[in-house]
Amino acid sequence: MKFNFYISLKIVTTIFIACLVSLSGCSSSKPVAEFHETVFTMGTLVEVTIIGEKSALSEKAYAAILDDFNYMHNTWHPWKPNALKRVNSLLKTGASFPLAPSILPLIKKSQILSEQSQGLFNPAIGQLVKLWGFHQDNLDEIIEPPEDSSIQVLLKQLPKMSDVKFKGLSMFGINENIQLDFGGFAKGVAVDSTIEHLKEFGIKNAIINAGGDLRAIGTKNGRPWRIGIRNPRGDGVFAAVEVSGDESVFTSGDYERYFESNGKQYHHIIDPRTGYPADKTRSVTVIHSDAATADAAATALFIAGPEKWHEIAKAMGIKYVMLIAGNGDVHMNPTMAKRIEFIIKQPVIKLSSPL
Amino acid sequence: MRGIGIASLFTTADKILFLFSFTLITASFFYFWQSSPASYAVIKSEQQDALTINLNEPQLLHIQGMLGVSTLEVKQGQIRFVTSPCRNKICIQSGWHHHGGAVSACLPNRISVQLASHVSNARYDAIIF
Amino acid sequence: MTTALTKISIGHQDKLVAGFAALAITIHLLESTLPSPIPGIKPGLANLVTLYVLIRHGWVLAANVSLIRVIAASLLLGSFLSPTFAMSLAGAIASLTVLGLAWHCPGKPFGPIGLSILASMAHISAQVITAYLLFIPHSSLFALLPILLTTALISGTFGGILVCKILQRIDNLKNT
Questions:
Q1: Which terminus in chain A has less CB density within 10 A, N or C?
Q2: What was the ipTM of the complex prediction?
Q3: Is C109 in contact with B11 (Cβ distance < 8 A)?
Q4: Does residue A69 fall inside a structural domain?
């Protein structure tokens, strides 16, 4: 009898150990060097994560991209005195002037994106943005929205990116209302530039998260990066998405910069067609390879709204879009729906046709 | 009659199995419930030195920022902004934070709060909004 | 063609299976009316029928009773081929497998309580794994596992004790 008992005990133990072993597949792997730093720059909080490199290298790379960020922040700032300001004042005059190397890449790239987005992404409407009061740090000072008449005046001769012309080594503007404001784009370009710089250091696995817009390269120790998507009004993370290889995730929302007047909120994403903040959308999340396109697309699709986003996304070559409409409806294309994992109760999703 | 009577219904193997299961279940609590809540946070402000605080000690912190003083509340592994001199109070609206790796900030006041946990397997590698 | 109708002869064992299956189905249906705080948590009294049949009539009959119960109950409740059905079936198969192994351990070391515990733990583990694979591929689902295993242990223990008592009563009846 005793002999039999021990055999049975062995069988039972084996079964339990088998269960434990199979459950252990859910665990993580051995610890690897993680570099993580946060800094205030480009007008927001930037987090840099570098995995699997010696700390000396990570520190060096981080210091280098801090310099990059500072330079870009100062050079592309929409209203502080800098190269962009000079370019803007010269463009207004219509006279020819030499190409500005620090601003040129921004102009060229945004011309392409502006055309693809049917003008919804339009960095040339800086005057309109300024009219609304968003060209200052302290939004407390705005008391009320601008007069409709002032808006209409600007709309009559709405500047476009194609109003910036090139001839040989010179450039000139053909619309006196033009004012370049790369607010909805500079972050993307900066993230691209700094990621490339990290790659030059030989870094293969990293994330640069600039105030909620990020580009991630490589993987987290062999598994994809897990990105949490949060509602900024404090409801915690409501969805998650995994990225790997080289992908950017950018969001545009009506909560980023805004002021309140007479109980109504006015945010900073101005629809170039109406001159008023786009009001059909709450937020747009875009996944794309390069950050600059993702940034511009997030803005353009926000303005496009629930009716037109699909058309614009297709034109811009964007493959993953999630748009939360003003009434709370969640619109997605099928491949995005496969990637987004809702942590809370799954909302009603309006699935579009494939992109 | 009840108590001892029931115990006799267990065979030896049954008793061993019961204890085994009990241990297994207790272990499973530890294994599956390591959702890595943050245990400490690093508060950075341009106006003062970085501050590392234990999130398990309830406290109220006053941090000097560029615009003024922001108050942060710490309680049971969570932290949040209570008051802040900024205009839009987005930092306050973002509520309690407890995920390891999460970051909360008052941008106008230049204060950031980075949560960390000892378990590096934090649920998310980055948070976007 | 000749009408080669096989005469289905109903043997003694078939009557046993039918009777026990009917009992198990009834209990299952009655239990399904009970509200449950967490979906899928039920006292699992119908499983006790399976256990009794295993002990008194062997594994094969117990397997029959169990599977018939799962299928018939889901047909009656209208949940056939639904997610609930998939989970029930997975749970039944898992607990039958474990019971089969345990029952045929040399020397039969496990009494009704041990068997009941094994069956209920296997049942609930299989259900969670099925739910994860088919319906909720969130690793956070496993956070429920410890709680569910605890209730499985408790209900398994009490169920086993109940079966012991029933066995005693029936033996007493047989002897008198």
A1: N
A2: 0.78
A3: yes
A4: no
